User: Fold these one by one.
Assistant:
Number 1:
Amino acid sequence: MALYKEKGVNPFSGFFLILIQIPVIFALYWVFLRGGLPEINTEILYSFISIPDSVNMNFLGFIDVSAKSVMFALFAGITQFFQIKYSLPPMKERAGKSSFKEDLARSFHIQMRYVMPIIVFSVAYAISAAVAIYWTTSNLFAIGQEIYVRKKIKSKYNETQSVATPDNGVRT
């Protein structure tokens, strides 16, 4: 907590992002699982919009997003695993007798790494392929962001490590 105070970081700031995603997941659930898209009211369409004969609910022309999809649920679970793997620091090896705090942190780490992808897979399969596509896309962006941030931090760290040497004053 002292580190959080010193650096001005709120440890619960990531919780806000989850709160933003919950309405999106509920909306996808209600649209695709609870009856699909609503009836098209042609009276409220603009005059230059043609009335569609039917609404295609297929993603890329081959998977119905209103139905369950094992493939997309599996993608959601796998991407969740890698997103957690990249975002959490590696687990420390147990050194002798560990405290309750260390055991609790280790247990939480294991649950997040292995149980969360199973939960994501189960929920994504139970609801619809639309939720699985949303989760997969969200996880892929989070993985990309994590890789980008790590590269930036690594390059900044390498820049600070290349300092002037005392013998010739040349930077490496």
Number 2:
Amino acid sequence: MLQKTVEATILQHLLEFADQLKRNGEFLLQEFGLTPQQWLILLHLVKDPNLPFTSAQQPEAPVLASQLAGFFNVSRANITNHLNALIAKELIVQTEDAGDRRRKILDLTEAGRNLVKLVEPQRHLENEKLFSSFSSEEKTEFLSYIQRCLVCVAGQ
């Protein structure tokens, strides 16, 4: 029989929290014709310092399609579908690496940069509303807990 544990309850609440965030994010991004995955790709290309992936990279290093596939833990075909949609919307460009033509370097177009600038204030506002009842210390502590959980999951 199932028993109630703090660990299981935390995980179930985190899953519900993630699901709610995803739904709210999808609703916000629909207004701009984006999916959450496409938005995350744009954030990677603009090198959002809030993303764990970005903070581990050199600021001047190009972003490669293969890196994004690895970050999202999806196949190259899957990430290619998202990239093709962003290319069709003229938000990103993909070029061959001069040193290795198999590598695809990704970059934002001017339209892509403008879209990020347009969406960012709304994202910031939504984030502020979400954490408005938290003190600065609580936010820092919450981030620390999440980072520790991610380290544990990655080590499994």
